[in-house]
Amino acid sequence: MNSDSADKADLRVLARDQRRAFVATLDPLAHRLAFKVLPSPLARRLADARTVALYMGLDDEAPAQRLAAPLIAMGKRVALPRVLDRLGSMDFLAWTPDAPLIPGPFRTSHPEPGDGPVTPDAIIAPLVGFDRALNRLGQGGGYYDRAFARFPDALRIGLAWSAQELDDVPADPWDLPLDIILTEAELIEGPDA
Q: Which residues does UniProt call coiled coil (predicted)?
């Protein structure tokens, strides 16, 4: 897709359409198996991480929650985001796949607060779109941009279907590029990997 002149709002519409069409054509078995295994290069990059933040995929988003079992098997604590307000604030709460979730704002759900927020060493973020320069196009609320800024030492990982790749994602000054993008087809790493 040529996205040189398109703005972020237009790109979001196009990327969502591409994602929806791709997921609709996926074989059900392929969909169920996608993102159930951590590729070895990603597992190596996460070796020193104690806490990895995931998200609960909505609708046709890549299902990050499927990575919970392999992460837990590696001895990692898994966390999910909790949206705090409309200003783009969120924190992360520890979670296990058998724990119930509480409904949150904007169709989100999060774990019980338990011992309170945790500090992630890696943040796996949903993507609307991405490019080979590891720029991400999110929902537009700034939640993950703020989380990346708040946890600057956390490994930034985007999760998406391969069909969400764009030629070029415009980056604003506050947009931090990802360190890694994982799709069902490949792992894309930055030059410093």
A: none
